[in-house]
Design brief:
Number of strands: 10
Structural class: alpha+beta
Largest sheet: 10 strands, mixed
Shape: globular
Number of helices: 5
């Protein structure tokens, strides 16, 4: 055999082996991800059409909760710490939400409570999933070359990404709710930083005035807000993940419930020309 043919054969064999190794490495994670998302509860049944002869009664909160728990029955049988499912339409964010008595466990554990470096999205342990005024859900940013868990949240730094993905769907054991995204901001996670803003301690607002004070703090820090922002009596939902613009930083996407009669389309973007960013934030980033 001519030397060049031998070398070509060896090269092609090497490529084939590399491709096979990649498949062997990636396939299990891809299959696990697909299986996980396949466990998403079925959509809630459509409301009964009402007529003058047969007006539909509004379900009680107890009836709504019973229906929601029925939807989540299989997931709850697998893990009784499931509290919901979060979806950002048009992105890869489509996951169960867990909650336990701390904010560490599900950073590195899966639905079966087995160690998994990717973890799962989880609700802050201090949040009241049923009656809380501010629900905060954390998830990993797996890096620029990844798309799973909460990685897509970093894209909201760009208002154009918001324009294409303006809503969040949160189904809990108590209700299903569409939220409209109203602000995106960044904070330092280092408690030793002088400008540390503990956004995740603002959970149980004692009054509308207290919530308004928090909303004002967020508006100062936001890269942008949308529409007419938030009324101080509205519930809040925040999704939080790491952002690698600087070490130990977080990006937070905040939303409030879709209002009656409101469109799910993106609202006008109100750019903040001088957001209050962490002091360590790189200039011009």
């Amino acid at each position: 055999m001519k030397p060049w043919k031998l070398m070509l054969g060896m090269f092609l064999s090497g490529l084939g082996a590399a491709a096979l190794a990649t498949v062997v490495w990636v396939a299990p994670e891809w299959l696990a991800e697909r299986a996980l998302k396949g466990q998403k509860p079925a959509a809630a049944k459509a409301a009964v059409v009402t007529t003058e002869e047969t007006p539909a009664a509004t379900p009680s909160p107890e009836e709504v909760e019973a229906a929601q728990r029925a939807r989540f029955a299989d997931l709850l049988a697998q893990n009784d710490e499931v509290v919901g499912w979060v979806t950002v339409p048009g992105t890869n964010i489509d996951y169960p939400v867990l909650q336990t008595d701390n904010n560490q466990f599900y950073l590195r554990h899966d639905l079966d409570k087995q160690y998994n470096v990717r973890g799962l999205p989880f609700l802050d342990y201090e949040c009241d999933a049923k009656n809380g005024r501010h629900l905060i859900i954390y998830g990993h940013n797996m890096g620029d070359d990844e798309t799973d868990r909460f990685t897509n949240l970093q894209e909201y730094r760009d208002p154009d990404y918001y324009a294409s993905h303006p809503t969040i769907q949160l189904d809990t054991l108590y209700e299903s709710q569409v939220y409209k995204i109203v602000a995106v901001f960044a904070v330092t996670a280092r408690t030793s930083d002088p400008d540390y803003f503990a956004y995740n301690t603002y959970i149980n607002f004692e009054s509308d005035e207290e919530e308004q004070a928090y909303l004002d703090e967020v508006a100062q820090r936001a890269f942008y807000t949308t529409g007419d922002y938030v009324q101080p009596n509205e519930k809040l939902l925040s999704l939080s993940t790491c952002i690698y613009t600087m070490p130990d930083a977080r990006i937070v996407v905040m939303a409030r419930p879709l209002r009656e009669g409101e469109s799910t389309e993106a609202d006008a973007v109100n750019l903040n020309s001088d957001p209050l960013l962490p002091a360590r934030w790189p200039q011009g980033a």
